Amino acid sequence: MSDRPSIPVAGLSKAPARPAVAGAGAGAVALLDVSSAWDAEGALRDAARRELPLEVRKAAVSGLRVVSVVAAGVVTAYLALLAVGAPRGESIVAWLSHTRALLVVLVLCTVMAVVTRLERATPDTVLRLGFIQYLAVAFLLGLSRHAHAWPAGEAIRQWSPVGVWILLFGALVPIRPRTVLGWSLFAALMDPFALLVTHGQNVPLAVMDRLLLALSPFCAALMAFVTSSVIYGLNERIAKAREFGSYRLVERLGTGGMAEVWRADHRMLARPAAVKLIRPNVLAAYGENESSRLVRLFEREVQTTAALRSAHTIQVYDFGVARDGTFYYVMELLDGFDLQTLVERFGRQPAERVVYILRQVCHSLHEAHARQFVHRDMKPGNIYVCRYGADLDFAKVLDFGLVLDRRPTAEELDERRGQIGTPAIMAPEQVRFDAPVDQRTDIYAMGCVAYWLLAGVRVFEAESRHDMLVMHAHQRPVPPSRRSGVAIPEGLEQVVMDCLLKNPNKRPQSAAELSERLAALDLEAAWTAERMEAWWRGPGAARPSIAPAPAVRLNRSPGGVLRVEEADASGPTNSV
User: What is the number of other CB atoms lying within 10 angstroms of the CB of residue 290?
Assistant: First the structure.
């Protein structure tokens, strides 16, 4: 797709992104602010591998440096006090014999503080060394604690220095709480292990005193887990506020197996938006390779949509990958109904309204086809009618995720080997693998949309995906007037049936031609501004203010191909 217009993509370059503008005219809005360069592809890889995001790993390294410096400072001060308070005449050798474990702790912490500043050391390497240091220091502190015999009754009054070390680590190293808990329990075990190493089986303490002696490190491990959970949760919320820049997520509007759609507010502009997200756990569930294919599908959708300027194509404001691997894009928030919901809630629509809506959709498709884009999924759920400023019944075309560029890359040619689309509106040439797919495929889908609006039923009803595809490929549809039992203007019905012809050469050849034929119809009534106003004040008043949020799921076919399916009345869709 080398001929596509270049668009700014926030967060996908390794150079600092500058503010840019998406959309045109009244639809223009500043893109999300990206203040620093980062590796978006790496964030997606980390999410697919279930790894901590790079930003979190870097913060953990910084926390590890603070822990090491603080521990080194505390041990140094403690050793200085021991030296000052040492009995007169005690040799340096004797003093070192009592403090050698603490001296090793000082060396380890100093070395680790230096390692965390090495530019050549990767965060992963430093963290692995940090966990080794965590256990080693815990063991050495245990050795220092148990260097002398414990008097009876003393154990209950002692708080282990291992516990202090565990609490310090849990509070200052921001990693996943369950990771903190696992390593902290191991560190807590170092205390009784050090007791065993120093005294063997000859510990002059009762069993209960031994348990009390080991209690404080394990209490500290649980406290470290709680502390880490609170701090990690706060860091996550702060990161989310940062990663979506000027947009604040307000309310979740829809969710599925693949994506979430949120209502969002711009911090500076008095205009809401919709943010569509793919969470990192979705990428992780399907592995690195399959998640890359999923991300390419979303990239194609947003790049195609952003390249289109028709007022009847949904406007995209921003697009990128957050630091935790969340793939997102920001689009305008629509106030109305998709055509699937419109018919399900209010029944079949009058002919004049159907013509009014379809001509607007043709405006969007005409531009897309002129740019050599074929939508391939023009189902009722992907067309919205809404209040748009002062306009009523304003149509918007959504979801260009399955768009086919008529000038595809080699990679896209490989992806075209599968059946892609919604069975309920799939043209015969989409079912036949060797048949060419072009703009007339969208014309067939427009016939299916018109049929749904006029008759209140789909062109074909079938119990399985396979049967639905066979019907679209070979069976002649029944005219919508016969299915609905309601009279439909003859000229309009003929246009719909022409769109549904099996032979693409016999259909209207373009969106412009279809729009002209619809405009030329002599209908008994017109869909006037007064009728629109009455409808939107009446039945249409009880509407949600929402953005497109299909219920989506991911399935894997027997051949191992990832299938992205939308669960709505139109049937499953989007096999890639």
Answer: 18
